Amino acid sequence: MRRGQGSRGHRGRGLARRFAGEAARHRTVLVNGVPGHMSWRDDGTPLSVIAFVVGGGRINGIHIVVDPAKLAAIRLA
């Protein structure tokens, strides 16, 4: 069984729900040219960036950034 599947998969869903509950605004974005999602708190500070690694028509990996210092450096058009 791969990590994130089966009995461990519920942890990822809980984390996603936690961040979705905190996010006041969110939108789909391109992260380094790949599909992703960005969320902000009510006060406008970034909460998270999620980038999906896609290959062969499937999601092969997910990168999540929640470090406030890294998020503060992100510039969107």
Notes on the protein architecture:
A hairpin with a 5-residue loop joins strand 2 and strand 3. The N terminus is likely disordered. The protein has 2 helices and 4 strands, in the order αββββα. The protein has 77 residues and is α+β, with helices and mostly antiparallel strands. A 4-stranded antiparallel sheet has the order 1-2-3-4. The longest helix has 14 residues.
Structure summarized in a few sentences:
The chain is an alpha+beta fold. The chain has helices at residues 9-22, 68-72; strands at 25-31, 34-40, 46-55, 58-65.
Chart the SSEs and their pairings.
Layout: H1 9-22, E1 25-31, E2 34-40, E3 46-55, E4 58-65, H2 68-72
